[in-house]
Amino acid sequence: EIIENKYHLSGDVELKSDSYFLAADDIEVSxxxxxxxxxxxxxxxxxxxxxxxxxxxxxxxxxxxIATASxxxxxxxxxxxxxxxxxTEIISKTPSSVFLTxxxxxxxxxxxxxxxxxxxxxxxxxxxNRGYADSATLVFYGLPIFYLPKYSWVLSGRGxxxxxxxxxxxxxxxxxxDSYSVRVPYYFNLAPDRDLLV
Length: 198
Fold this sequence. Notes:
- The structure is a single chain.
- With 198 residues, this protein is mainly β.
- The protein has strands spanning 2-3, 6-16, 21-30, 35-45, 49-61, 64-76, 85-93, 97-105, 115-125, 130-140, 143-154, 161-162, 166-171, 178-183, 186-191, 194-197.
- The chain has an eleven-stranded antiparallel beta sheet, with no helix packed on it. It has a three-stranded antiparallel beta sheet with strand order 12-15-16, with no helix packed on it. Strands 13-14 form a two-stranded antiparallel sheet.
- Strand 5 (49-61) and strand 6 form a beta hairpin.
- It is elongated, with a radius of gyration of 22 Å.
């Protein structure tokens, strides 16, 4: 249907461009304000993310697409099959950032999330290569391990931070009791070719 400046498409709709793919049961495109509304079995893909959900609204502002989906699963396939994935009540994606509300985040294969971060909100800042989570809980095999009010991590590549702790026991010569040691290493990423371990 074409009504004034609106196109209404229904029934297994697929829209493609050189940068985006959008499929849904029902799509409305408005040329007057460069907006799109998709409903039912929504699948959206750009150069880095695949998003599936109930509804998706998209609008082009300053030649940049801002897409917002609800009750959505997402996957960052730019890093390959091991890219980040999860579920979120609301995902809002711009070319430089991704905002997730009441979301999970995992680097495990899709549908095999042995561990994940469950947070009230997550911001993935693609320009700074950092992820930020508020009220985050680390979940391992469905069990909450620990809670962090704020948590930050590097999205790809190396970054400064704590490494896996090491616990050991040893015997000193001439002593009957064993001694114990705990190591908590911290890695400093100083430059692409320099680092420091403390």
